[in-house]
Structure to design on (122 residues):
């Protein structure tokens, strides 16, 4: 099992799919990485040599922000918005949708489970 950027990559999947298990790498970046290293798209992780795994690891470390660094950067950006007190920061602080979605109905993911209002009978 290959370990890249602190994540165990599944061995029986293709390299393009397996790289997407790393936070911050999607289909486009996975394709870029395999192009840079020179690995064919249909190759599986268990067919990679140690040298190729090392090249992938070095490419990701050098060119991309992934996993812990990316999560920390996103959290710092959200904290900065909250400290500024801008509209988006206030929405984050209150746990409401940030991108202009309606909240009269829906938005249950951000707001949490529905709370019944006491004394509202007919």
């Amino acid at each position: 099992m290959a370990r890249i950027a602190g994540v165990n990559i599944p061995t029986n999947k293709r390299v393009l799919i397996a790289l997407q298990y790393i936070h911050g790498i999607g289909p486009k970046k996975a394709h870029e990485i395999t192009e840079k290293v020179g690995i064919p798209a249909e190759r599986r992780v268990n067919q990679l040599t140690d040298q190729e795994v090392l090249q992938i690891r070095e490419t990701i470390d050098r060119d991309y922000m992934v996993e812990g660094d990316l999560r920390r950067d996103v959290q710092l950006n959200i904290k900065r918005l909250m400290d500024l007190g801008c509209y988006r920061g206030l929405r984050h602080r209150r746990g409401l949708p940030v991108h202009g979605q309606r909240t009269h109905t829906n938005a249950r993911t951000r707001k949490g489970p529905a709370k019944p209002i006491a004394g509202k009978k007919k």
The domain at 2-64 is CATH 1.10.8.50 (Helicase, Ruva Protein; domain 3). The chain has two domains: 2-64, 68-111.
